[in-house]
Amino acid sequence: MSFAGFNRAWAAWIGDRLERRGHRVVFQRWDSPAEVPLVDLLRDLRLAQGRILIIVSEWYFQLGPRTHDEWNSALREVVAPDPSPFAAVRVTASNLPAATALLRPVDLTNMGAEEAERRVLDRLDLPTDPLPEFAEGARRGPRFPVAMPEVWGGVPRRNTRFTGREPLLNDAYHLLQGAESGAGVVTLHGMSGVGKTQLAAEYVYRFGSEYDVVWWVNAENRVTYRRRLAELAPQLGLSTGAEYGERLRAVRDSLRRGDPYARWLLILDGADEPDQIYDLVPNGPGHVLITSRNPEWSEHNSGLLEVPVYDRGESVAFIRRRAPRLSEPEADQLAEVLEDLPLLLDQTAGWLNDSDLSVQEYIALLEGGIDQDVVKISADFPVAFQTAWSILLNKLGDTVPESVDLLRLCTFFAPGFIPVRLLREMPHDGLPPTLAGLLRDPLLWNKAINQLRQYSVVRLESHEAAGDEAASSGESLYLHRMVHQIVHRDMPDDVRREYVNVVRRALAAADPRRPTDTRVWPGYAEIVPHLKYADVLRSKDPAVQGLLFNCLRYMYFSGEYGAGIKLGGRALEAWRTLLGENHPRIWELTHHYANLLRAVGDYQRTEALTRSAVTQLRAERGPQDLDALRAVGGLAADLRGLGRYDEALALSLQLVETYRELLGEQDSRTLSAQNNWGVSLRLLGRYHEALDIDRRTMEERRMLLRQRHPWTLSSELSFATDLRLVGRYIEAESVQTKNVREHRLVMGADSPQTLQAEHNLALCHYRSGDRAAAGALLTRVLERGERVLGETHPLTLIFAGSMSCFAREHGDIDQARELGEYVAARYEVMLPAGHPFVAGVRANHALVLRRVGERDQAHVVIEQSLADMTAAVGEKHPWTLGCAINAAALRNLVGDPESAAALAQDAVTRATEVLGRTHPLTLSARIALAADLRALRDRRQAEEVEQGALTDLAATLGPQHVHTISARSRNRPYWDFEPQST
C-alpha cells in the first residue's frame, strides 16, 4: 500500500481491515525526491510483490513537488502498458492528474465505514463478507478516518500546507506506542518558530484515529493548564461539581484508570516550564505529547525529540507550496537567507507570492537592512528576522492599517493565547480613534484579523467551556512569542504610551472584584499572565491598582504563593518610587505582600515589614486607624509564626476589643480578629477556650457570609481541629468529613486550605482508630502538598511530620526517619533558635531513634527537647507534657526508673490541671505513670493508677478503641508532636 504521509489514517484503517481478513500488508509511505525522475520511482514501486494499492489524493501527487503534467506523463509510461498490478482508492474531492484514471480509483469520500470497506475489497477482487464483531477485550483497530474520536477538543485546524517532518512523526509514534503503560510521554522540543505546535497538530490528524479521546491543552502556565484539563471532565461523562479543582482531580483519576476511555491522547502545547506542571501530567494507558522549548522534560520521565529547522529540501518544498510562483532555485535562495526557520518561511512566502517583489529584490531589502534600529530579539533567531518583519509590517500597514493597530495592541497582553473578550469588552470611551472604530465595527474587526491570519501572524482558536466557565471561554487570538517581541519593540513611543493605557483599562474592567470567591478564580487566572506585559505597576489609575490588589489576594487564597511573592515584591519596589514611601496604597500593598510571604514561612522578614508599618501608621494616624489595626493583625500572625504566642495573644485580644468597639461584632474584620484569637489560644494549648471561640466565629460567619464561603469553611476546620485536640474524636471526625467534602467542592482538591482539611481528617481517622484510612489519606495529602506547594512550604512540613509519625508506628521506619530528619532540618533553617516546633520535631525524632534501638541517643535528644520545649512554651503546655511522657519512657529504658516515675507523676498532675482528668493526653500520662510504678515494684499503686485510667479510657473513648486496647495490653503510650497552622 502506497500513501502520502498526510493520508496515514486512511492507510492504517484500510490495512487493518485487510489484515483482519488474513492478508499481509506492506506499508510504504510515498516519497518523491525532486532529484529522482518520477518514472523511476513508479518503476521501483511496480517491483513490489502482490497487488499495489495506491491511496490517491492531492497530497500524493504534490510531493516533490510535482506538476500534473509530470504525473500524466509518468503514469502513461509506467502504468498504461499493464495496469493490472495497480489498484487505487480516492480519498479526496480535489482535482487530480487526468492519467489517474489509469489506476481506476474507487471513491471513498462521503460514505460510511461499511460501504468504504466493501468498495476497497471489491476493487481488490476480494470477498466482501462482513467480519465478526470484536470479541470482548480484543485489540481494537484504527477508527474510520472520517469518524471523529469520541472526545475531541481544542485541536488546531489542520495545516494543509504541512510539509516534511516524516521521521519525527514516525519516531514520536513509535516512542509512544512502545512505551509501558503510564510511561507514554514524548516531548517535542526546539527553539521558537521551528513548528513544534504544527508538528503536534499533524501527529493528531495522522494518528488520531487510534484514540478515543484527543484533548489539546494550552500548557504555558499552571493555572490555564489546570483549567483546560478540568474542562475535559464533562466530555468524559464524569459526575463532578462546577469547580475546576474538583473536575481536575476527577479527570486525572479517570485517565489513570483508563475508564471510560483507555485510548486517550493529551497534547500539552507550549509547556516551557516543566517545574510548573510536571506533577499534573496524567499517567495511565494513554499517551501525552508535549511541545516545549525546554529539554528539561527529560528529567520528568518524558522521551525527547528535538525539532530542528527544516532541512533544505523541506524548506524548498514548503516555499513552493506556499508561493507557487517561485521557482525551485528562487525557493532555495529564500530558504538560504531565512535560514530554514519554518515560522519565518511561512510568514514571508505567503505575502511574497502576492507581491510584485522578486526574490532577489526581497533579499536585497534584507541585506540592506530595513529599519536598522530594530533591536535583535535573540541570538537563537536569524539576524534577518527583524528586517523581514519590518517588511511584513509595512505590507500590512499599506493594505489594512487596522491590522497593525490590533497587532500592536496585542503585544501589551502576554504572548500566547489572548482572550478576545478582553479586547472586545474593553471600555470604548477615550479610546484612540483607530482602536475605537476597530472594536466597534465587526466588519473592520474581522477584516483586520483575517489579514493577520492570512500571513500567519496570529491564529484564531475556539475554546469550548461549560457552565460557570463561559465567561472565560470563546475565541482567542494566538500570538507567537517571537512575533510578540519584535512587534512590541518596533513601536513609536507615543503609540506605546497610548496602547498600554488602553490594555490596563481593559484588564481593570475585567476584574471580577471578588478574589475570595472560588467561582470567579478562572477569571483571575486569565488576567494574571497579562499584568507584566501591560506594565500595570507603573499605573496611577486607582482601578488598575485595585486590580493588582485583587490579583494578589486571589494568588494568596488560591495558593499561587511563589508567583504572588514575585509580583508583590516588584510592585512594592515600583510603587515606592512611583507613589512615595508613605502613600496609603503602600500600606495596603505591604499587607498583601506580607500575607504571601507569611504563607511560605518567611516570618522574620514579614515581622520586620509589619512592625515597621504598625509603628509608622500609629504615629501618623493613631492606634485606631483601620490600616494600623490591619497591620497589627499581621504582626500578631508573624509572632505566632515565630513562636511568640503570648505576645500574639495579647495583640489578638486588643484587636478583637478595638474592632468590636469601632465596627461591631458582625463585621468581617471583627470575625477575622476573633478567628486569630482562637488560633493563638490553640497554639498556647488552651484547647477548650479555642473551641469556644472557634465555635462562635464559625456560627457568626455562617450568618454573615454563607455556609460555603472559604472563611466559613476555615472556621469549621478550626472547630473540628479543636474537637480533636480536646479528645472528642467521633464528633471531630464527623464535622471534618463534611468539611472536606465541601472544601473539595468549593476550593478544589489542590487548594492549600483543602489540603489542611484533608490532613485534619486523616488525623481524625487516626485518633478514631481507622489506621488504614488515615495512612492512605496522609500519603495522598503529603504527595499533593509536595507537588502543589513544594517540599519546603510550612503546610508540607506539617504533612511530612504527620506522615513520619504514622510511618514510624505502622509503616516504614526508614521513611519515618528520613521524613523526620528532613522536617527538623528545614525548621532549623526556617525558624529562630528556641522555636517550639524545632523542639517538637526533635521529640518525634527521639521516638524513631528509640524504635531503631539507639536508646542512648534517643534519651539525649528527648531530654534536650523537653528542656527546649519548657523554655519555649512553659511547663504546663500540652506540648511540654507530651515531651515529658516520652522522656519518662526513655529514662525508664536507660535504667533510671525513679526519675521516670517522678517525671510521669509531674506530667499527670499538670495535665489534670490544664486539660482535665479524662483528656487523652492526661490518660496517656496516667498509663505511663502506672508503667513506671511497676518498674519501681510499687505494684499496688501501679494497679490503682492503671485501673483508674483504664476505666476512664473506656468511658471516654470506648472499650474497643485502639488506645484503650493498647493500654489494657500494657503497651506504653507515646506522644506525637503535631505542629499547628499559625
Blueprint of the fold:
Elements: E1 2-3, H1 8-19, E2 28-29, H2 38-46, E3 52-56, H3 58-62, H4 68-78, E4 86-90, E5 106-107, H5 113-123, E6 151-153, H6 166-177, E7 185-189, H7 196-207, E8 213-218, H8 222-230, H9 232-235, H10 244-257, E9 264-269, H11 274-277, E10 287-292, E11 303-306, H12 312-322, H13 328-337, H14 342-354, H15 359-368, H16 384-399, H17 401-410, E12 416-419, H18 420-424, H19 433-440, H20 442-454, E13 458-463, E14 474-479, H21 481-489, H22 493-509, H23 521-531, H24 542-558, H25 561-579, H26 584-599, H27 603-621, H28 626-641, H29 645-663, H30 668-683, H31 687-704, H32 710-725, H33 729-747, H34 752-768, H35 771-788, H36 794-810, H37 813-830, H38 836-851, H39 855-873, H40 878-893, H41 897-914, H42 920-935, H43 939-956, H44 962-968
Parallel strand pairs: 1-2, 3-4, 4-5, 6-8, 7-10, 7-11, 8-9, 9-10
Antiparallel strand pairs: 12-14, 13-14
